[in-house]
Amino acid sequence: MLDDDAHQLELLSRAVEAMGHVSHRFSDGSSLLTAMKRATFDLLLVDWELPGVSGIDVVQTVRAEGAAMPIVMVTHRDAERDVVKGLTTGADDYVVKPVRSAELKARLLALLRRAYPETPRSQWHGPFAWATASGVWHRHGTPVDLKPREFDLAVCLFKNIGRLLSRDYLMQSVWGREADVPTRTLDTHVSAVRAKLGLRPEQGYRLSAVYGHGYRLETLDLPSDPDEAA
């Protein structure tokens, strides 16, 4: 959440944390944009009028860099032209201050529901199939022996294919917010998932480390002609 008013940040934080989410506060646009180079956020709440980089500039920059998380403009500006500009610039919703907590929560729930639909009990991707209820993973119909944390990590990576995920995001998603886990543990689990699932370019997948940030799982186009692969 981005706002230069400490009181507004506190109100927004309370609303978001009451929904069970972790909030990260920023008072200027440059700090948020810098943080996004090393951290992964699921949703942004952005004020318009800020010192230095404006909220509109932040939205434009985030969208220009290809980030697709939901963005909500939260601002005192209530003219129709401002609402139109905010939405056409790249925001997904527009909330006028003073913020009504119950309405904000309902809007955020709707956005998060669309952006991150509930994971079905069984899923498929290419040669892989997995069932969250049983914790069983298959590759080409053959069971793969993944430990519970490896299973959760693999599910997180496949749910976010193509998305750069920070180390903190992955560790919170797999081990929980309060877990005190060495970062080396994450690297070990990533290596195990890569090896057990065969996530390598020749198999159509690339699980790569991005220095100073985290990991990204990508799908690759394999040549259909054997001569092309030679």
How would you describe this structure in keywords?
2 domains, 230 residues, Arc Repressor Mutant, subunit A, four-stranded antiparallel sheet, alpha+beta, elongated, 41% helix, 9 helices
CATH architecture annotation of the largest domain? 3-Layer(aba) Sandwich
Query: How much is the average pLDDT?
Result: 90
How many domains make up the coordinates?
2
**Helix-strand sequence:** HHEHEHEHEEEEHEHHEEH
Percent of sequence in beta strands: 15-25%
**Which structural class fits the helix and strand makeup?**
alpha+beta
First-last Cα distance: 50 Å
By CATH, the superfamily of the largest domain comes out as Response regulator
The Rg value, from CA coordinates, equals 20 Å
CATH topology of the largest domain: Rossmann fold
Number of helices: 9
* Low-pLDDT residue intervals, each spanning 5 or more residues: 225-230
The CATH top-level class label of the largest domain: Alpha Beta
Overall shape: it is elongated
| Overall strand count | 10
Helix proportion range: 40-55%
What composes the largest sheet? 4 strands, antiparallel
- In the sheet with the most strands, the strands line up as 4-5-6-7
